[in-house]
Amino acid sequence: MSTFIHGGTxxxxxxxxxxxxxxxxxxxxxxxxxxxxxxxxxxxxxxxxVIDATGKYVVPGGVDCHTHMELPFGGTFASDTFETGTRxxxxxxxxxxxxxAVQKAGERVQDGLAAWHAKADGQCAxxxxxxxxxGGVDDDSLKAMDELVAEGITSFxxxxxxxxxxxxxxxxxxxxxQTAANNGAMMMMHAENGTAIxxxxxxxxxxxxxxPRWHGLTRPxxxxxxxxxxAIMLARLTGAPLYIVHMSAKQAVTTLAASRAEGYNxxxxxxxxxxxxSLEEQLSAPGFEGAKWVCSTPLRSREEGHQxxxxxxxxxxxxxxxxxxxxxxxxxxxxxxxxxNFSKIPNGIGSVEHRMDLLYQGVVDGRISxxxxxxxxxxxxxxxxxxxxxxxxxxxxxxxxxxxxxxxxRTRISVETHHMNMDHSAWEGYEIAGGVDTVLSRGTVVVxxxxxxxxxxxxxxxRRGLSSYLT
Length: 471
Fold this sequence. Notes:
Elements: E1 2-6, E2 9-11, E3 16-18, E4 20-24, E5 27-32, H1 43-46, E6 49-52, E7 57-60, E8 62-67, E9 72-73, E10 76-77, H2 82-91, E11 94-102, H3 109-120, E12 127-133, H4 139-149, E13 155-159, H5 170-183, E14 186-190, H6 194-207, H7 213-217, H8 221-238, E15 242-244, H9 250-261, E16 266-270, H10 272-276, H11 279-283, H12 306-316, E17 321-322, H13 355-364, H14 370-384, E18 402-412, E19 431-441, E20 444-448, E21 451-452
Helix pairs in contact: 4-5, 5-8, 8-9
């Protein structure tokens, strides 16, 4: 089945120019200058599907390399299943996710991965891969890291936070990084000083400070910057590549940038919530409302200028990727688990449907260019995690994952219209300039003008190679 997309402006990580796109057999076959007859003089009539993209951008399908569907956390589970979460992602122009399989303490790594395969198999609207969370670093899990690389699981996440749940100490981190340095895998790090945070949390609760804003105040920027520095030093010591997830503090980004300037393979991501939301405006909302925005790392102070500095780091390249850390929980019954104790609020915000739109506002506002938008949301995450050139760019031979994006559309985000399995929206009332028109996954139209045309089970598991930045 062939698809011809004509009249649009194709945006790559380096340019934006008028081009037509021919897709056949689920793959991009050619990029054609307007009027090019290399594949026939009337593709607009002969192709099986024709999409008029006049006045619109034609961009690669988004790659969200940090999601948590059905994640167990704090006595409950992330509210999006792989079915609902990937469908919502498709509505937002994301055609690939990389989720996190979880090894629980005392469990074999392979068993944790098998559980995530079981959750996702036959459920996804778009293609998906897995990172592996190592919940207990020991001889068996280190051996499993080598085995999983051969199975297309080429990145592993450790936590410097959450003692008693996911926490790894410096010796465990060192051993895991030594293993990654040998097998070529990317190490991912949740960089917060969890033991210090636990003390601050206990002290706040003892004073009677129980409201959601204390989630942020007990996770100050110093705990992120210190852990970021420590993780980078261990990576430099071992020679392992390091990718620091959900960076929110400008001081931590400065530390990252210093090692990047010295030529080390250390990378950072941020998320839309850290670019737009804040401690003062959302996390400190009256009553218990701030629980909607409890996530870790926490929202930072706008008065201290963290948001502007993160945008600056996206422009300079010191931050490489924008993902979502999509980990949704409903306000009723889930977030309310912490109504008398902020430390019991499940950590997470739902954004998988809105990432492409929210980052496009950076183009509208002049903070980033069109090609940088594509680079941050599509190309770099694909390259970072071994999916390029199959994903992340519209080039011959790539999968036919394409989004037709209308810069003249207007979108209002609301719980009434979003497709995530949540009873509220962290982005309620946000007015977006631009909007997704048509989404193709491997050449199949899955969303068109707000209508879902996809099917459960269309999405396939992706065996990933090693990072393009290391090989």
